[in-house]
Amino acid sequence: MSIDAVKLCVSYGAHEVLSGVTFSAAAGDCLAVLGPNGVGKSTLFKCLLGFIAPTDGTVTVGGKKILGMPRAEAAKLIAYIPQTSVPTFNYTVLDTVLMGVTNSLPAFRGPNERHTQKALEILETLGIPHLAESGVEKISGGERQLALIARALIQDARVLIMDEPTANLDYGNRFRVMERITHLAANGYTVIFSTHEPNHALEYANCVLALKSGKILTFGEPNAVLTERTLSELYGIGVYVGKLTIGGAEHSVSLPYNR
What we know:
Blueprint: E1 3-12, E2 15-25, E3 30-34, H1 41-48, E4 56-61, E5 64-65, H2 71-74, E6 78-81, H3 93-98, H4 113-125, H5 141-153, E7 159-162, H6 171-186, E8 190-194, H7 198-204, E9 207-212, E10 215-220, H8 222-225, H9 228-235, E11 238-246, E12 249-257
Parallel strand pairs: 3-8, 3-9, 6-7, 7-8
Antiparallel strand pairs: 1-2, 1-4, 4-5, 9-10, 11-12
Helix pairs in contact: 5-6
């Protein structure tokens, strides 16, 4: 399912946060959104989800305008996965995933056996079926992030918006979560994720949107647009971009340095 943003502009009072942002992502795309803090990434995500109205421009998901759409209907098209966080209650992983079906349930009705079976299948797909009865307070940050992704998947939405999905995760869990995210895109989901790691865009995304001062600095295939000049302009530091060959496969990498 495609998501299309056309000439998005957002202002808070006299302060313009986004200006003329236009891009598209289709089924199978894994789009990385890059940019320094305060550049408008969170505002962009709120627009894509229909949480705020742009000053100008439109967002459509599967050809339907998301703004003003009933939340239960929107939840069937687009899902949001927040940064991992410590939960307030020690719900089981299975119960956490089942919370994602609330958009499709009548009032005062709980999940049924069909929902439970579907949740277990999703956990299997993400490689964490053994955690179904584990409390979310007792599992690792990476496992908790996968549980949040599972909760979004049970909505049946085909567009997934992920806010820094590897924030606060250790090195190994970052790798595991990003591998699962690219697997979802390979299976036809449209994935948009924000990141502060250019290497995540180079390694895992097939397209990248870089924002600077609320405008698109570059948009396109990562290896083509994430040049040393572009990354240095984006972050205000020197950035080296090169290639490594590991196990016969070539990988692009970036490293910061003092100019």
